[in-house]
Amino acid sequence: MTSARPVRWKTLLAFAIIYFVWGSTFLAIRVGVREVPPFLLAGMRFFTAGIVLFAWTRARRIALPNRHQWLSASLLAVLIFVFDYGLLFWAEKRVPSGIAAVMLATIPVFMALAEIIFLKTQSLSPRLTLALSVGVGGVIILVSRSASFGDRAIDPAGAVALLIAAVCWSVAAILTRKLSLPESKLMSSASQMLAGGILLIIAAAMLGEFRNFHIGAVSAKAWIALAYLIVAGSIVAFTAYVWLIHHESPTKVGTYAYVNPVVAVLLGYFVGGEALGARTIAGTFLVLVSVVVITTAPKNQIEDQKIEIKEAE
Prior knowledge:
The chain is an all-alpha fold and about 325 residues long. The chain has one domain (about 10-310). Helices cover about 70% and strands about 0% of the residues. The protein is built from 13 helices and no strands. The protein starts with 7 loop residues before the first helix and ends with a helix.
């Protein structure tokens, strides 16, 4: 953090951007995947944004990654962009955008489990036990086939894809601390995003997404959604985020983790016409309570890991 405090309106604007822009990207993804194959759409988003960020870092004469750092960045790109974002885009063809945001909000839950079970860096306190149980309960409500909630359960394949995406993000968050990456956070993020965009396009080709895809048939609405994802979601919001983490505490900045899903659910309902029944409300509430408790737990290392890996967006 710098010694001089920034102008208050700049801080508020930056928070508004990471809250509402990142929260709205889930609906934009939903709009885009209706006409563009999911992995191809994700590849177009991150390749374009990665090129812009990479050019920006070079314009600032930031050193290029060495061979070993490129390999590390590529490994993280597979986990973050191919599996996390690729599966998110794929799932949003089957799952409402608001629910997709809620399911990905379980990332701190998986990170806590990884720290407790594998890394042994976190103890299973009563507080964490309760938080984990509440989070798992929220997911169970969202995927349960019980009719007692009134509204329909989410698509099982989409739910599984989103859970795998959340796990992959959590694994990447842990690996970020162990791999050799560029010292510059900007260059690290740009290299991961660029590599991720290339790998997503390769994945799209391997999955046959280029077959029967006609670029001329894509509507202006889908192009606007893609442009919004690139410019607002990956460049503007990322810049606001990087600026914030140099002026505010990680705890404050990390509040996006439980604001974004709320924004996504409300936008999905009011703008996207998505259902907002008892199941969605109950599941969202429990997941967000779990996230709040986990991310505010004392001596919690999860927040720092999550902040670092979020820079890859």
